[in-house]
Write a structure and sequence with these properties.
The complex is a heterodimer of chains A (169) and B (381).
Chain A (H helix, E strand, L loop, with lengths): L12 H136 L3 H14 L4
Chain B lengths: L1 H28 L3 H4 L5 H9 L8 H9 L4 E5 L2 E4 L1 E6 L2 E6 L13 E2 L3 E5 L2 E5 L7 H5 L2 E2 L4 H27 L8 H21 L1 H26 L13 H18 L2 H8 L6 H47 L5 H38 L7 H6 L1
Antiparallel strand pairs in B: 1-2, 3-4, 3-8, 5-6, 6-7
The chains are: A mainly alpha (169), B mainly alpha (381).
């Protein structure tokens, strides 16, 4: 046979047999107890790294979203504060204005009342004076008339006397 | 690598030494070597008989002796580990130590079991009473011996199991989330390399997972045997991955896996190439069919030839010292052998990678989904 020319290229049945046994043994044992767990572990780790990266990315975007949300909140708060201050100012101004107005109204009312009272007192006083003057006039006139009727000279002195006495204080 | 060279040097020295001893033994006790020796062994015996002068050195024989399989494992000098011989003959199985196949001078001797066995050129044969090979009876002989290569293979299997199972245990211990440690961190890049550079680009990410255990086992088995083959002394020293039986077994495994996982479109592309004229189809079918077989055969030859060539190269360089018969030749031979040894380290990895790569490529070709426009042709078929 051609193959028998060189024993190097003639496979020995023994080695073929044992090699098949060894290879199949390795394939089964390593396949079950080495390759499977190792490949699974490697895959799991890669998956883990991938997941971690995805998670980190997600966190990053979440953080960015949160930051922008914070900023929006802050802006809103600032705005609110501004409105609040503005409103407070307005209220205060209004209160002051109201108080002023009210005070003015009260003052006006008091002044008006006072005027009314003054007018009333003045009128009452005038009426009183008028009445007294009238009574005095009547009295004087009565006395004058009395004197005239008795003595003419005396009458005149008397009138003067009276007139002097009534100085209309 | 220096170890290797020194060891090789020592081995050569011992080889020459033992050759001389054997020669003297022959010369002393046996005057008719050619007639009593088994036919094929006769030329060697004659040569040995003739080699009386120091430095008469058969390079080819020495190199081949180191490359081929053996029934015992040579350690140093005259010390060898005998390995079990397991024979299946027409009279059933028989197990005995390989010690019994050699005499005290490490020359082949006849062992009388169910038949008379004798080593002829390193192979067990049945011999008749006169010591000649009984060709008919030898055809019935199946040699399942634990030879040097088989023993080395078992060692490599043991190493792989220990290393990889402990690496796998590391994942259980440290968990998935923590970084790999020790052996684990050494094996993981290699496994990832096989997955990301070999399996996924050739087979596709979806199907690669299914073939990963097969590819990884092939890769690591070839790699460990390539490396063990580079170690010149005991746990290494055998030439497993440079043995045609080893590469053939792996190539057959690839052949079986490729053809079992082949889909319809793969066979269609072989027997009735779509999108071609019918005459071209007829022309291409036998070529493609041959291709089915040449692919694994090329795998087998490539690994065998590369590893064997590397071993021969290193041994040849060392043999230069004995060819020139001067120790000064080592000034050139040893640095060159170290250099080639370095290249062999690269080749050891490269060949394991190429074998796995091509296996993955063949699997990828067999499982590829074709999307061509020739569906009309396919329907016609």
């Amino acid at each position: 046979m051609l193959l028998e020319i060189n024993p190097l290229v003639l496979p020995d049945i023994g080695l073929v047999f044992w090699n098949t046994v060894a290879f199949l043994l390795l394939l089964v044992v390593l396949g079950k107890f080495a390759w499977k767990p190792i490949l699974k572990a490697i895959n799991d780790r890669e998956q883990g790294i991938e997941d971690a990266l995805a998670k980190a990315d997600k966190m990053k975007s979440e953080l960015a979203a949160m930051q922008s949300e914070n900023e929006a909140l802050l802006a809103k708060a600032r705005e609110e504060r501004a409105t609040l201050i503005k409103e407070a100012k307005e209220t205060a101004d209004k209160m002051v204005a109201d108080a002023k107005e009210k005070a003015k109204a009260q003052y006006d009312a008091i002044v008006a009342d006072a005027q009314v009272a003054i007018n009333q007192q003045k009128n009452a006083a005038l009426t009183d004076v008028k009445n007294q003057v009238g009574a005095l006039v009547i009295e004087v006139a009565e006395k004058v008339l009395h004197k005239e009727l008795s003595n003419k000279a005396a009458q005149e002195t008397y009138i003067n006397e009276l007139a002097e006495g009534v100085k209309l204080n | 690598m220096t170890f290797r060279s020194i060891k090789s040097l020592l081995v050569k020295t011992f080889s020459v030494f033992s050759l001389l001893i054997a020669t003297q033994a022959f010369a002393g006790e046996n005057h008719t070597p050619a007639t009593t020796q088994a036919g094929a062994a006769a030329p060697a015996a004659v040569e040995a008989h003739g080699a009386k002068k120091e430095g008469d050195f058969n390079v080819t024989e020495t190199i081949l002796e180191h490359i081929k399989d053996d029934h015992s494992w040579h350690m140093w000098g005259h010390v060898s580990i005998p390995l079990p011989v397991i024979l299946k003959t027409s009279k059933g199985f028989e197990v005995f130590s390989s010690e019994k196949l050699v005499d005290e001078h490490h020359e082949p001797a006849v062992y009388k079991g169910n038949f008379d066995y004798k080593l002829v050129e390193g192979k067990t044969k049945i011999v008749d009473a006169a010591g000649n090979v009984d060709v008919e009876a030898s055809k019935q002989l199946w040699d399942f011996s634990i030879t040097k290569n088989v023993a080395s293979l078992f060692i490599s299997v043991f190493i792989l199991l220990v290393v990889l199972l402990s690496a796998a245990a590391g994942y259980k211990k440290t968990g998935v989330k923590s970084a790999p440690k020790g052996l684990q961190s050494f094996m993981e890049p290699i496994i990832l390399f096989v997955r990301d550079e070999v399996a996924i680009p050739n087979i596709g990410a979806k199907k690669a997972g299914k073939y990963m255990p097969f590819l990884l086992t092939i890769f690591f088995l070839i790699l460990i045997n390539n490396f063990l083959g580079l170690i010149p002394f005991f746990p290494g020293g055998a030439n497993v991955s440079g043995n045609i039986a080893f590469t053939m077994t792996l190539a057959v495994c690839v052949f079986i896996v490729v053809n079992l996982s082949a889909n319809k479109s793969y066979w269609e592309h072989i027997f009735w190439m779509p999108g071609m004229h019918w005459s071209m189809k007829l022309f291409l079918a036998p070529i493609e069919l041959i291709g089915v077989f040449t692919k694994p055969i090329s795998l087998m030859i490539r690994l065998f030839a590369n590893i064997t060539a590397g071993h021969i190269l290193v041994l040849s360089l060392i043999c230069l010292i004995f060819i020139f018969k001067t120790v000064f030749a080592s000034a050139i031979a040893v640095p060159f052998a170290v250099f080639i040894g370095m290249i062999e380290l690269l080749v050891a990895f490269l060949q394991a990678f190429i074998f796995t790569m091509l296996a993955a490529m063949y699997i990828g070709m067999a499982t590829e989904e074709h999307h061509h426009d020739a569906h009309g042709e396919a329907a016609h078929h």
